Amino acid sequence: MRVARKGPSYEAVSSGATGHAESVEVKFNPAQVSYATLLTVFFSVVHDPTQLNRQGPDHGTQYRSAIFATSADQKRVADAYIAQLDSAKAFKTPIVTQVSMLDAFYPAEAYHQDYATVHPNNPYIVINDAPKVVHLQQQFADLYQSEPVLTRSKGGAS
């Protein structure tokens, strides 16, 4: 991955005109959790991988279902997993998740960091995100941590 210069603003990405996708950067230790496990969580509780250019109430190409692999092996594994899910008809309609190599990641502005933790009563969080956390806890109790890892605790936004 190349070092990213300052990226587009939230407003620019939200317009859908930049070609970027809203995403999160997941850093993990494969000795603690496998990439396959992360894919299982992603396709089970994170979002609906069959919605084209839409996630919940948000719509546009910036809300596309996407995985940005950091290695050819990650891309191969994600593509194979999607093919397996589609073959098994795990969802009522085909998966539209795009798998591509990560070109660059641009962190959101400070006011978006740790948003659900900072704004737990925001209606968007309550309606769209909090239920996913409950499902994560129910479906993957062994992976669930009640204390989130915050961007701010790592020298990020303040």
List segments where confidence is low: pLDDT < 50 over at least 5 consecutive residues.
Answer: 1-5
Mean pLDDT: 90
Structural class of the helix and strand makeup?
mainly alpha
In angstroms, what separates the terminal alpha carbons? Answer: 26 Å
- Within the CATH hierarchy, at the fold level, what is the topology of the largest domain? Peptide Methionine Sulfoxide Reductase, Chain A
* Rg measurement, Å: 16 Å
Question: What distinguishing features does this structure have?
Answer:
158 residues; mainly alpha; Peptide Methionine Sulfoxide Reductase, Chain A; 2 domains; 34% helix
Describe the model.
This protein has five helices and four strands; from the N terminus they run ααβββαβαα. A two-stranded antiparallel ribbon has the order 1-2. A two-stranded parallel sheet has the order 3-4. It has two domains: 10-105, Peptide Methionine Sulfoxide Reductase, Chain A (2-Layer Sandwich); 107-152, no CATH class. Helix 2 (35-46) packs across helix 5 (123-139). Helix 3 links the parallel strand 3 and strand 4. Helices cover 34% and strands 8% of the residues. Residues 1-5 have low confidence and may be disordered. It has 158 residues and is mostly helical.
Brief account:
The protein is mainly α and 158 residues long. It is 34% helix and 8% strand.
Write the layout of secondary structure elements.
Blueprint: H1 10-14, H2 35-46, E1 54-55, E2 58-59, E3 66-69, H3 72-87, E4 98-101, H4 115-118, H5 123-139
Parallel strand pairs: 3-4
Antiparallel strand pairs: 1-2
